[in-house]
């Protein structure tokens, strides 16, 4: 039943998947996607219903000298309509054709981060194959072209893409809404000696070359995915297996260290599968990127992209892998229909991440993560303007704004706290069974808060429970509802005691900190008072070596304290940290702390001038707002 779809069929598909009738959609992905005629995406021009893009076949050449991807996107569409409307931003369109015959097209006006609609006149023809010849701009926001010095090997350049939230349109002309799912294939041509990896199954022929002598890599994604999950990286990339369906890609000098750091990945998959059902994507590999990667991790299907700052050497930051893996259910299987419901992706994922870590390392350990999450949430609410601020709600209306503005701690930690609350009211066993049913019923479909809540009413809640949870307040009111379960982990209680002792005058070296984990240290640092004498900081530093910590989370926390108190011995480390990695989560708070004073602003400007050219647009865009 892959052919044409009528509007009636669409509405039925919606009703069926909303649980109002019909059978569940477990098993293979539905052939016909549920179009966003149902939910209008304020961040896509492709809200026209039909034609609907169902697959994208890419044939692209990576030109490192010109910093461009050049080639063809072949889009298969379903359903008839006057015009095929696509999202683009900064693309140069050379031609549009179907079966070799040119099709008239026009690029509309560019509207900021949304880019410009590309309208192709298809005049009612149904089920087309449309070829678009195009190339990307050298400053395409999704792409970062790294010069050899920005890599570990220093010999070859590197390219990677970042699609979320609305950047895929800067490298692929398609219907770039998370509510519109597409299969994809790709042939990627790269200079000899380099390798292309993608968020899909590797179907490359050994040593394939094109007529120009470039190496060709081929990929295939058979499940329909939202376009923000199409991902590519090109560089000097090696591979090391971990388990039978897992492994790590990274530059050759990094790959062994990465494989050692991530050795628990198979246990994580086993834990997630036990809780929430089969992993449906085939392989699960990780790609460790050069240090400018702007995120901790990105859940590109079959191939999580990860920052090298997670390689602490002691597996202390691998909850990040649990997080990206959890997106294989929440986010990649069941996807926020628009960025207004981003919390459905990140809040569910954060909850599941904590559950996976609990399976691996026990409740006291997972509770530390939960408690740190709550501390982050408190900070996030304060940063948003306090508990009355509109942006502290779970469901947002980001119309007219960059969806990136919704990427605060709130969707993550308030979203997780919501599920912790449901957990506390209905019990884990029932919540887990419901989550399994949710992923099964809505696999490969877009999700809204309304549909999720309807499914809770239908399949989870007993009389009185909805009120007890106060679902509406959680999703639509600002601030943190009072019924969020209090997390009082046993391990942090011990840390609090040491903080009190230190405040009471105990020397740092006399504190009981032996065998503390990274999370205990983070809690310790976060519990220190805002103002501390530099002599006291020097004593802490001498005892615990914070300034030379190789742990990115601890260093990030410590450097903020150092700046706040003008502890100058740490300033070279501030410079070193800001110029050696580009993870937005680390850059933002440190630059923000610096610009609070005149001397700090001067320092921030000096560092940023040197560092900015090495940052990804996602990070420089955020820091531009801070360092004016
Ligand atoms: N999907 C996000 C990253 C993202 C969010 C990219 C919004 C673009 C827009 C990813 O799963 C994520 O949340 N990464 C976190 C790490 C995680 C352990 C909280 C990050 O990058 O810090
Ligand atoms: Zn996430």
What labels would you give this structure?
628 residues; 19 helices; 5-stranded mixed β-sheet; alpha+beta; 19% strand; 36% helix; binds zinc ion; binds ligand BES; 8-stranded mixed β-sheet; disordered N terminus
Bound molecules: ligand BES, zinc ion
Largest sheet: 8 strands, mixed
Number of helices: 19
- The beta-strand count equals 22
Q: Give the amount of beta strand, in percent.
A: 15-25%
Morphology call: globular
| Lateral arrangement of strands in the main beta sheet | 5-4-8-2-1-11-14-13
What is the radius of gyration?
25 Å
Structural class: alpha+beta
Distance between the termini: 55 Å
Name the poorly predicted regions: 1-28
Helix content: 25-40%
Q: What is the residue-mean pLDDT, rounded to a whole number? A: 94
What does this structure look like?
This protein is of the alpha+beta class and 628 residues long. The protein contains 19 helices and 22 strands. The protein has an eight-stranded mixed beta sheet with strand order 5-4-8-2-1-11-14-13, with no helix packed on it. It has a five-stranded mixed beta sheet with strand order 16-17-18-20-19, with helices on one face. The chain has a four-stranded antiparallel beta sheet with strand order 9-10-15-12, with no helix packed on it. α5 (342-361) packs antiparallel against α6 (363-384), α5 packs across α7 and α15 packs across α16 (571-580). The chain starts with 6 loop residues before the first helix and ends with a helix. Mean pLDDT is 94; it is low at 1-28. The chain binds ligand BES and zinc ion. Zinc ion (ZN) binds next to α5.
């Amino acid at each position: 039943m892959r052919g044409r779809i009528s509007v009636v069929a669409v509405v039925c598909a919606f009703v069926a998947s909303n649980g109002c009738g019909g059978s569940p959609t477990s098993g293979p992905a539905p052939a016909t996607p549920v179009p966003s005629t149902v939910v209008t995406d304020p961040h896509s021009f492709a809200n026209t219903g039909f034609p609907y893009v169902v697959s994208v076949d890419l044939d692209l050449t990576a030109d490192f000298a010109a910093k461009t991807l050049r080639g063809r996107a072949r889009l298969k569409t379903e359903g008839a309509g006057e015009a095929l409307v696509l999202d683009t931003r900064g693309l140069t369109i050379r031609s549009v054709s179907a079966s070799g015959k040119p099709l008239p097209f026009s690029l509309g006006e560019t509207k900021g981060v949304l880019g410009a609609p590309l309208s192709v006149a298809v005049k009612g023809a149904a089920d087309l194959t449309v070829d678009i010849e195009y190339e990307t701009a050298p400053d395409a926001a999704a792409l970062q072209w790294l010069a050899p010095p920005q890599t570990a090997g220093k010999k070859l350049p590197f390219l990677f893409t970042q699609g979320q939230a609305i950047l895929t349109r800067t490298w692929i002309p398609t219907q770039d809404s998370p509510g519109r799912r597409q299969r994809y294939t790709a042939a990627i041509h790269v200079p000899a000696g380099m390798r292309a990896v993608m968020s899909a199954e590797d179907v490359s022929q050994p040593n394939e070359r094109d007529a120009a002598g470039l190496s060709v890599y081929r990929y295939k994604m058979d499940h329909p995915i939202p376009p923000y999950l199409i991902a590519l990286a090109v560089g000097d990339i090696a591979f090391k297996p971990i388990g039978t369906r897992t492994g790590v890609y990274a530059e050759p000098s990094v790959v062994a260290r990465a494989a050692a750091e991530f050795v628990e990945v198979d246990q994580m998959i086993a834990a997630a599968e036990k809780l929430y059902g089969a992993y449906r994507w085939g392989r699960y590999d990780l790609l460790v990127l050069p240090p400018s990667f702007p995120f901790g991790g990105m859940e590109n299907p079959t191939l999580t992209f990860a920052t090298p700052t997670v390689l602490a050497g002691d597996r202390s930051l691998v909850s990040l892998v649990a997080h990206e893996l959890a997106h294989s259910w929440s986010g990649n299987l069941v996807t926020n229909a628009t960025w207004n419901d981003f919390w459905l992706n990140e809040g569910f994922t954060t909850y599941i991440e904590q559950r996976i870590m609990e399976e691996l390392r026990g409740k006291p350990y997972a509770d530390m993560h939960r408690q740190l999450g709550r501390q982050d949430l408190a900070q996030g609410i304060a940063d948003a303007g306090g508990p009355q601020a509109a942006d502290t709600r779970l469901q947002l209306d980001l119309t007219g704004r960059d969806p990136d503005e919704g990427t605060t701690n709130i969707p993550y930690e308030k979203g997780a706290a919501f599920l912790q609350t449901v957990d506390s009211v209905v019990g884990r066993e029932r919540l887990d069974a419901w989550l399994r049913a949710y992923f099964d019923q809505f696999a490969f479909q877009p999700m809204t808060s309304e549909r999720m809540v309807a499914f809770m009413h239908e399949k989870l809640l007993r009389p009185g429970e909805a009120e007890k949870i106060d679902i509406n307040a959680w999703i639509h009111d600002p601030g943190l509802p009072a019924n969020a379960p209090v997390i009082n982990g046993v391990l942090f209680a011990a840390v609090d005691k040491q903080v009190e002792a230190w405040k009471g005058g105990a020397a740092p070296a006399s504190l009981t900190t032996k065998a503390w984990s990274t999370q205990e240290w983070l809690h310790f640092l976060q519990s220190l008072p805002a103002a501390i004498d530099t002599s006291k900081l020097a004593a802490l530093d001498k005892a615990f070596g914070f300034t030379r910590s190789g742990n990115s989370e601890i260093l990030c926390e410590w450097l903020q304290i150092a700046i706040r108190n003008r502890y100058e011995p740490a300033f070279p480390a501030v410079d070193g940290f800001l110029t050696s990695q580009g993870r937005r989560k680390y850059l933002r708070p440190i630059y923000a702390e610096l610009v609070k004073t005149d001397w700090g602003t001067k320092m921030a400007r000096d560092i940023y001038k040197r560092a900015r050219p090495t940052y990804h647009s996602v990070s420089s865009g955020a820091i531009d707002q801070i360092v004016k």
